Amino acid sequence: MAASTLPVLTGVVRDQRRSLVLWSLALAAVSAMYISFWPSLGDGAMEEAISSLPEEMVIAMGYDRIGTAAGYMTSTVYGLLAPILLLVFAISVGSRLVAGEEEDGSLELELTSPVGRGRVFAERLLALWLDVLLLVAALTAVSYLLVMAFDMEVGFTSVLAGAAGLYLLVIGMGTVALAVGAITGRRAAALGVAAALAVLAFIFDAIGPVADMGWMTAVSPFSWYLENDPLTNGFDVRGLLLLAIIPLVFGAAGLVRFDRRDLMV
Amino acid sequence: MTEVVIRTEGLVKDYGSVRALNGVDLQIERGEIFGFLGPNGAGKSTTIRVLLDLLRPTAGRAEVFGVAPAEGGAELRRRIGYLPGELAMRGRQTAGGLLEHLANLRGGFGSERIVPLAERFGLDLDRPIRGLSKGNKQKVGVVQAFMHAPELLILDEPSSGLDPLLQREFLDLVLEARDRGATVFMSSHVLSEIEDVAGRVAIIRAGEIVDLDDVRTLRHRAGQSVELEFADQVDVETFRRLPGVYDAAVDGTTLTCLLRGEPDVLLKAAANHRVIRWAAQDRELEDLFLDFYRMPVNDQAVEEVAADGR
Q: Within its chain, how far is the Cα of B295 from the centroid?
């Protein structure tokens, strides 16, 4: 039974089930709405509108690729709405799952139970990864359903590639929040660091190409996710590997520190 | 040979530059109900948190069942039931749901005792946690601490929030645990909360154990506030000299004093006059703390008070 093998994770997910359902529905609905505009824009009207915008803005917002179905999905959903919503979710949940519950004391009974500290941290991190997996799966399902419904030229592999990059980006920032919280015990620090990183990554990805500063896109996880246009070109192994480093490194750092420090529940 | 369940030696804990524990020595044996008394902020919860491995000692040593809490880890905590001083519980789950979850953290151990314990304390398991009163939350805390019949119970301010009837029920539960061989370590800032069940009591003040005795001696030492009203003026000096009488003062025809020990001598002295009203009240432990606060912190002074008490 799951309850006995991963009791901490089970408890967390049971607590979250209602908000998880609501988040999945909201994410799916907003994404569906945007993707559904495609058929009415597909006849070049969009490109016409874009051509009247300043070139820098077009590049920064990624509108240069909006003419294709994959480009349109990237510019609206996969490069903007979905990451923003998912990052808000993952960073707020991540900062709450350890630091938030340590600060308000609700972690006390779990930490004094016969479950090791490292285990508590790991299962809570796993719960976060599972939450995001669920949301990304919902997004992927809706996206591909609409791709088929509107006969858009986006392959299934490409949708999966986009989902994989998005997933790794989001759990990366969520893990930063959870780990900074586990290291400091402060929810505000966890939120601040992770949100700042996410915003920087987004800005670097947007400004890098415009300002012609390659180092910005080289260090931006957002660029690792989108630079090679996964919805057009499929899996980008290098980008995915870079993205995978963040949750692993921060997860390990959080685990090590959480096991050693004083817990102020 | 008696087994030592909790042992601390020179336990020191600093929070940054603030010293919360300054060399705490404790030795609690199997089967004891040990009271841990002190005003708020004296270091009770800090000591308890070290025993549960939430905090790591700055210096000195703590052992539970012969191992340091950090080394014993999860396996050690399997043998402990803990009731936190400030129980924080979140979420929209029900009281029963939370208790099941806590039993799951123990591999399901104790879940069969949730219902009988909840019934005993009149806790409605179907109510959501967030709507529970402080008293009801405390019941949840009591149930989770006792449900797996642990060998060691660590109870931080256990009866806060419980009404007197349930407080009695709670103390019965403590006694039952002791009778089946468990050891109980319970803290409080009020002596009356634990004096009916505790054997030995340690008093902690500003991170140091200032007194350790059995509860009867302690109560004796706290003494009684006595007030006697006479028909005529009395000479305060005749009372001031009596053994066991302290701080005697006369205001008009009323004598007030602190009495430690048997009242016999005082009563006989008072009987030389016409007494028209008398009152004697057990002093609160807070007064005893105040005695300690007034004292310079050195062993000799503690010895003097201790000797006076007997």
A: 21
